[in-house]
């Protein structure tokens, strides 16, 4: 299944390594991670210019999203029940 990150970006649930909350006082974990490993990743703005609330990390990409980390986590766990995650077949039908 795929998780919608905002605008036109979706990521395979199985490729997600971490979801960082960027608006939490303890987001120093994200800051430390970016300082140490940030140059290894392609950075994609999936916010549509609405500001960043979360960062979704995959093997090679950091997606900056305007959707909160809590919402993304819920969507990933509940699947396509709320329309935020899609099966492979649903994506092919939309093309």
TrEMBL record:
Highest taxon, organism lineage: Bacteria
Task: Kindly give the Pfam families that the UniProt entry links to this protein.
Answer: RemA-like
InterPro entries membership = RemA-like
Descriptive protein name:
DUF370 domain-containing protein
| The organism of origin for this protein | Phascolarctobacterium succinatutens
């Amino acid at each position: 299944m795929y998780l919608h990150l905002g605008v036109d970006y979706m990521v395979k649930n199985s490729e997600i390594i971490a979801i960082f909350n960027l608006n939490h006082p303890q987001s120093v974990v994200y800051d430390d991670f970016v300082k140490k490993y940030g140059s290894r990743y392609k950075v994609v703005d999936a916010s549509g210019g609405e500001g960043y609330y979360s960062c979704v990390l995959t093997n090679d990409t950091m997606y900056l999203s305007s959707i909160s980390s809590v919402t993304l986590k819920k969507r990933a766990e509940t699947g396509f029940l709320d329309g935020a995650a899609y099966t492979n077949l649903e994506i092919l039908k939309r093309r």
